[in-house]
Design goal:
With 886 residues, the protein is α+β, with helices and mostly antiparallel strands. The protein is built from 23 helices and 35 strands.
């Protein structure tokens, strides 16, 4: 049997099926993110990118395809690291037929590849088939020559189906690793839970269609769908006991070992963490490379969960600082030749992973300590479960995934009340839903309009003035015939130039006039049947259904809105150019006075990045590019490269907005005719609004001019205060700061001298209590920093001591306690001592045996509190004597 690298196996497989007698098209590995829905992530689906060919939506270039597809599986994360086979990321080698060859070829070619190309011993191979698949039995037994005793019939495990649709029997190929891997049972055979028989290939014969009633009908064209796990076949070809010993994982494990100083293979429990890290960093690398950022929902939560589990395993190996980002390079070394997207995006992947690790480390230590404390309490009280409320608090406050809580609890022999956790989570969601009801309250007022189906034609893309007829009026939840002066209500028109709020663009405002009156348009939203619904306040006269009205949009407001909307498109493109193609719109606001753009990104933008984004947008504005808007089929728009917004639903016909040759987006909003009309673009702020989501706020046109004027005024005021002209301001500020630093150094010297003098004075109060040198003093106004500095001065001058200093700051009591090593050895503890002292002043505290601090509410009781030290030491001494007598 040959010894082959994973890279060699992958290439041999593709070459074998691409040879003329088999003539398969080599299909490139697809993204883990579906091309038709960028918000998703393929999970548990090696052939998912080929699904359009199976269900007939698309016709492949050839009816025979071979590929190596990257796959993610997350339904058994908790098993990864503990078994030889479980992985969250793996490569699936597959050959497929769409209405071409079938069982005979699939079986014989599989056998040929395994026994002739890979040279696996035929006597080590056995298969399973469906209990009723006599045809497969004949091919294996008669055509291939596999003995009947190595052909095992099964039922559910040998029939592949997922709900309604194409399905069929399957045949699994197993490799016998030898008795040393077995369970010792005489009934051990393929399908046993032990590691002896390793499934290496599954041949699925898609020959039926499962109907809605549960029946099966033969397909007119039968398909073949096979899958061979590269990691598993590599473990066989490299003669190693599990996936993690192959060349796909071992370099990652070795690098982790080098970083941690821990040896892999020395301790089975420790090895689990090496394996978890090696598996999870592969998944994280590929997912982030395909545009999936860690987050709190959906696919982002899966990646965050894996990263945090791996980070915790690193801590178990002594890796207290972020380290996973350093392993991305190892994944690149192993996989980059086959998957160039990993190599191309490696710097970005490393930055994302490092940022997420740092975020997790900020909360992990505190959260884990709290969890362990709760688990100890559970065990101390004789309970078996951690309360769901506690698990939820960890999730909500410290970002602890529930799975991680369950894993840590399991290690401590405690279960987690998952049902209680889910109840708390649902209660939080319900609170959020109730909070949203105010914003969405308009839906509850639409009952009267549900029956109004008269169409409304929007002409506001080209006309800001139009004539229409009132088709319906609603006041609250009731339809009305009229709206008198001073009243507010909702109005439907058959023709309107007023834009209804949508896609981030705010609604138009303006005036509606009719014979004998006028009304102000306050807002425009979509009615239940898609019409533009105007909220109006009648200024004079009475508005009646059937009235002919003249509509006039506030032109000045609209001009500012369209500038900001087109600028938003330019900003989106510039962000993708500067930061990377992972940037995707996550929300927006287009108003007359500003624009706001939310987007996916892992960390704050640098000043240089912001300046570059701003420069690129302004360059397009100054080129005065034409903005062309066309309606076309959705597929044609996608073929042009038009960007679609995540979460938006599009019909078969879409509106495409093209700003020169710079930006192409699907958009139903209003835009300028040329980019030059925007005038100028200025970024006002950039902030984070959630994990993996950033927000840029900007202004254009007159707003940008005002912003510049305001900044110039501030600059002038600052220059005046520093008695410098604006051009000299930076140099003047640098001089002022240098002078300030020098003054602070002088002040620090004076404070140190004062502290030494104060410490010398305090030393005169040193006395002996119960044979112990004690200095307990109230020092007046002194915050915690001053008290600690005094304590350090005194400790440096004494060899044996108990120090307790009390001070006041901000109307509160402050205490510091210190105990020398010799007295700690005799049982004195600074933390316990200061806690008892602070109780006199209505406070509490604690800390280490050598140094501790505390606070109290009643500053007036500081002298009384420090006096208690002597009593406490006398009690301690009495206890010591009593103990010695016993």
């Amino acid at each position: 049997m040959k010894r082959l690298s994973a890279k060699e196996i992958r290439q041999m497989y593709k070459d074998f099926f691409a040879e003329p007698e088999r003539d398969h098209l080599v299909f490139p590995s697809a993204s883990l993110v579906p091309k038709d829905d960028p918000t998703l992530l393929w999970i548990n689906a090696g052939m998912a990118p080929l699904k359009p060919y199976f269900d007939g939506r698309e016709v492949p270039e050839k009816p025979r395809i071979v590929d190596a597809q990257k796959c993610i599986r997350t339904n058994d994360i908790e098993n990864v690291g503990y078994t030889a086979r479980h992985l969250t990321f793996f490569e699936m080698l597959g050959n497929f037929s769409f209405g071409d060859y079938f069982k005979r070829e699939a079986i014989t070619w599989a056998w040929e590849f395994l026994t002739r190309r890979l040279e696996l011993p035929p006597e080590r191979l056995s298969v399973t088939i469906h209990v009723k698949d006599d045809e497969a039995f004949e091919f294996w037994n008669k055509l291939v020559g596999l003995p009947a005793e190595r052909i095992h019939r099964g039922d559910e495990d040998n029939f592949w189906e997922i709900g309604e649709g194409p399905c069929g029997p399957c045949s699994e190929i197993f490799y016998d690793r030898g008795e040393e891997y077995g369970c010792g049972s005489p009934d051990c055979k393929p399908g046993c839970d032990c590691d002896r028989f390793l499934e290496i290939w599954n041949l699925v014969f898609t020959q039926f269609n499962k109907e809605a009633d549960g029946s099966y009908t033969p397909l007119p064209k039968k398909n073949i769908d096979t899958g061979m796990g590269l990691e598993r076949i590599a473990s066989v070809m490299q003669d190693v006991p599990n996936n993690f010993e192959t060349d796909l994982f071992r370099p990652i494990i070795d690098r982790t070992s080098g970083m941690s100083g821990r040896a892999y293979g020395a301790d089975a429990a420790q090895d689990v963490h090496f394996k978890i890290i090696a598996d999870h960093v592969r998944t994280i690398t590929f997912a982030v490379g395909d545009g999936v950022l860690p987050g709190n929902e959906g696919r982002g939560y899966i990646i965050r969960r894996l990263l945090r589990r791996a980070a915790r395993s690193g801590r178990r190996l002594g890796l207290e600082q972020p380290f996973l980002h350093r392993l991305v390079a190892v994944v690149d070394e192993i996989m980059g030749d086959e998957y160039p997207e990993v190599r191309d995006k490696r710097p970005f992947i490393e930055r994302v992973v490092k940022a997420e690790e740092e975020r997790f480390h900020e909360t992990l230590a505190e959260g884990e300590a709290l969890l362990l404390e709760r688990l100890e309490r559970v065990k101390r009280e004789g309970l078996t479960h951690l309360a769901g409320e506690d698990a939820f608090r960890l999730y909500d406050t410290y970002g602890f995934p529930i799975d991680l809580t369950e894993e840590i609890a399991r290690e401590q022999g405690v279960e987690v009340d998952r049902a209680g956790f889910e109840r708390e989570l649902e209660a939080q969601r319900e609170r959020a839903r109730r909070a949203r009801q105010v914003a969405e309250g308009m839906n509850s007022e639409r009952g009267a309009l549900e029956t109004v189906t008269a169409p409304s034609r929007f002409v506001g893309y080209t006309d800001l003035v139009a004539t229409g007829t009132v088709t319906a009026i609603a006041v609250g939840t009731e339809l009305a015939d009229e709206l008198p002066a001073g009243a507010e209500g909702q109005v439907l028109l058959d023709v309107t130039p007023f834009y209804a709020e949508s896609g981030g663009q705010v609604a138009d405002r303006g005036i509606i006039r009719w014979d004998g009156g006028e009304a102000e348009v306050l807002d425009v939203q979509k009615a239940p049947h898609g019409q533009n619904l105007h909220t109006v306040r009648v200024l004079s006269g009475t508005l009646r259904t059937g009235a002919s009205v003249a509509c006039e949009v506030d032109a000045e407001s609209r001009r500012d809105i369209v500038k900001n909307h087109t600028a938003t498109h330019l900003l989106h493109k510039a962000l993708r150019e500067v930061l990377g193609s992972h940037v995707a719109q996550a929300g927006s606001l287009v108003a007359p006075d500003r624009l706001r753009f939310d987007f996916s990104h892992f960390g704050p933008l640098s000043a240089e990045e912001l300046a570059e984004v701003e420069r690129r947008v302004n360059e397009v504005i100054w080129r005065d590019e034409p903005v062309v808007i066309r309606e076309m089929d959705l597929e044609a728009a996608k073929a042009m490269g038009a960007m679609a917004l995540f979460g938006e639903k599009y019909g078969s016909r879409v509106r495409v907005v093209m700003a020169g040759d710079y930006s192409i987006e699907l958009c139903g909003g209003c835009h300028v005719e040329r980019t030059g009309l925007i005038g100028m673009f200025r970024i006002v702020s950039e902030t984070g609004i959630g994990s993996g989501v950033r927000r840029v706020e900007a202004v254009t046109g007159r707003g940008a001019w005002r912003y510049g004027q305001e900044r110039e005024a501030i600059l002038g005021q600052a220059a005046e205060l520093l008695k410098a002209n604006p051009a000299e301001l930076v140099a003047r500020v640098e001089r002022v700061l240098a002078e300030q630093r020098e003054l602070e150094r002088e002040l620090e010297k004076l404070r140190a001298r004062l502290s030494r003098d104060r410490a010398a004075d305090l030393l005169r109060q040193l006395q002996e209590v119960a044979g112990v040198p004690v200095l307990a003093a109230a020092v007046g106004d002194a915050d915690m920093d001053v008290l600690r500095q005094l304590a350090d001065e005194l400790r440096a001058k004494l060899s044996s001591y108990v120090l307790v200093l009390g001070g006041t700051a901000g109307g509160k009591a402050q205490f510091v306690a210190a105990v020398s090593p010799d007295l700690q050895a005799r049982g004195l503890h600074a933390g316990r001592l200061v806690k008892q002292v602070a109780e006199v002043a209505g406070g509490s505290g604690g800390g280490r045996p050598d140094l501790a601090q505390a606070g109290g509410r009643d500053a007036a009781k500081v002298p009384q509190a420090v006096e208690r030290v002597k009593l406490l030491l006398q009690e301690w001494a009495g206890n010591q004597v009593a103990s010695e007598k016993r």
